Amino acid sequence: MTDSTLPVSPTPSTAAAAAYPITPEVERDLVIVKRGCDELLVESEFARKLARSRATGVPLRIKLGLDPTAPDIHLGHTVVLNKMRQLQELGHTVIFLIGDFTSMIGDPSGRNATRPPLTKEQIAVNAETYYQQASLVLDPARTEVRYNSEWCDPLGARGMIQLASRYTVARMLEREDFTKRYKGGVPISVHEFLYPLMQGYDSVALKSDLELGGTDQKFNLLVGRELQKEYGQEPQCVLTMPLLEGTDGVEKMSKSKNNYIGISETPESMFGKLMSISDVMMWKYFTLLSFKSLDEIAALKQETENGRNPRDVKVLLAQEIVARFHSQAAAEQAWTDFVARTKNKEIPDNLPEVALTGAPMGILQVLREASLCTSSSDAQRNVEQGGVRVDGVKVDDKGLKLDAGTYVLQVGKRKFARVTLG
């Protein structure tokens, strides 16, 4: 069974909600909400919620929960944040929920083994920068920030047992990753069953009208819907967004896969990574990340089909994203720098990606650890012979140290790598 086996049959909203007409304004709002989404469950219910909100002036409560499992947010995270921003602009209240309690359990979604829980100290460090970075997308003035420890900690053992009584093991095993692990004899710890329950209880505590998440969160989001029914609340609707592939165009964007674009990266690094995505993947990035209208995007796509260089269109995307997280001036400078770096026609389009830590790091060590040179002496010899370039600029100083950032390194005519140094 898959996540989709969890019942999602329409549940009547309040009689009042059903009485409000679906006006052209409501239909327009629905189009905006559905842009780029994978699923909206149940669409007819959400249309009634929008109609009620339009008629009464009472904003809907839109929930997004993120566990601070890492300190930085990348563009993959902003897919749902962009949708939250669109909902803010429609006048609704968005709740940025930091899962400080659920992080200690560890979300098992999509995993084939028990995920190690984070400590309180790790969570505190990661959460410190989470909202600050998210505010680069969300409007802070229209964002309600909450921590789920507010209601999860007071629940206590008695409350946890009562909550657990509202969901069965059989229903829990309908979740695809649990099913695979159970059939494969891979251990499932009891505490992992608590994660979807606690995420669902968040929706009860916040009286959520709509919860957002990636497609890998569908089961958890639907648990929230079912628990709200158990607690006598109008059930939330669920909107899932596609998972954004990283710069490799294959795997989901992830720091562990080293295919991510962090929103706190330098303008030059961000611009270069965006320019490295394929011409085909560019359109998915436009749909999920750009604030251009769908009509504008369709027009750009038509222009490329009529002969416009896709690279020129990709520049528009890269500049828009860099300007959002830095400034327009920074975006323009990043483009200028990119042109200067890529004047060397020998640089291939798809570079190997290497992540290193220890900035500032000497150029000889970087070349060795990036496997561009076999040893420090080999690296030194290449520098002395003028065969090493960083971002297209020849390196003459074998004592050069590189600060944190992303660089295109070249050794000779055939060895290249994009090195991200942390």
Automatic annotation (TrEMBL):
<keyword id="KW-0067">ATP-binding</keyword>
<feature type="binding site">
    <location>
        <position position="255"/>
    </location>
    <ligand>
        <name>ATP</name>
    </ligand>
</feature>
<keyword id="KW-0963">Cytoplasm</keyword>
<dbReference type="GO" id="GO:0003723">
    <property type="term" value="F:RNA binding"/>
</dbReference>
<comment type="function">
    <text>Catalyzes the attachment of tyrosine to tRNA(Tyr) in a two-step reaction: tyrosine is first activated by ATP to form Tyr-AMP and then transferred to the acceptor end of tRNA(Tyr).</text>
</comment>
<dbReference type="GO" id="GO:0005524">
    <property type="term" value="F:ATP binding"/>
</dbReference>
<dbReference type="InterPro" id="IPR002307">
    <property type="entry name" value="Tyr-tRNA-ligase"/>
</dbReference>
<protein>
    <recommendedName>
        <fullName>Tyrosine--tRNA ligase</fullName>
        <ecNumber>6.1.1.1</ecNumber>
    </recommendedName>
</protein>
<dbReference type="InterPro" id="IPR001412">
    <property type="entry name" value="aa-tRNA-synth_I_CS"/>
</dbReference>
<keyword id="KW-0648">Protein biosynthesis</keyword>
<dbReference type="InterPro" id="IPR014729">
    <property type="entry name" value="Rossmann-like_a/b/a_fold"/>
</dbReference>
<keyword id="KW-0547">Nucleotide-binding</keyword>
<feature type="domain" description="RNA-binding S4">
    <location>
        <begin position="362"/>
        <end position="405"/>
    </location>
</feature>
<dbReference type="InterPro" id="IPR002942">
    <property type="entry name" value="S4_RNA-bd"/>
</dbReference>
<feature type="short sequence motif" description="'HIGH' region">
    <location>
        <begin position="68"/>
        <end position="77"/>
    </location>
</feature>
<dbReference type="GO" id="GO:0004831">
    <property type="term" value="F:tyrosine-tRNA ligase activity"/>
</dbReference>
<keyword id="KW-0694">RNA-binding</keyword>
<dbReference type="GO" id="GO:0006437">
    <property type="term" value="P:tyrosyl-tRNA aminoacylation"/>
</dbReference>
<keyword id="KW-0436">Ligase</keyword>
<dbReference type="InterPro" id="IPR024108">
    <property type="entry name" value="Tyr-tRNA-ligase_bac_2"/>
</dbReference>
<comment type="subunit">
    <text>Homodimer.</text>
</comment>
<dbReference type="Pfam" id="PF01479">
    <property type="entry name" value="S4"/>
</dbReference>
<comment type="similarity">
    <text>Belongs to the class-I aminoacyl-tRNA synthetase family. TyrS type 2 subfamily.</text>
</comment>
<dbReference type="Pfam" id="PF00579">
    <property type="entry name" value="tRNA-synt_1b"/>
</dbReference>
<dbReference type="GO" id="GO:0005829">
    <property type="term" value="C:cytosol"/>
</dbReference>
<dbReference type="InterPro" id="IPR036986">
    <property type="entry name" value="S4_RNA-bd_sf"/>
</dbReference>
<dbReference type="InterPro" id="IPR002305">
    <property type="entry name" value="aa-tRNA-synth_Ic"/>
</dbReference>
<keyword id="KW-0030">Aminoacyl-tRNA synthetase</keyword>
<dbReference type="InterPro" id="IPR024088">
    <property type="entry name" value="Tyr-tRNA-ligase_bac-type"/>
</dbReference>
<feature type="short sequence motif" description="'KMSKS' region">
    <location>
        <begin position="252"/>
        <end position="256"/>
    </location>
</feature>
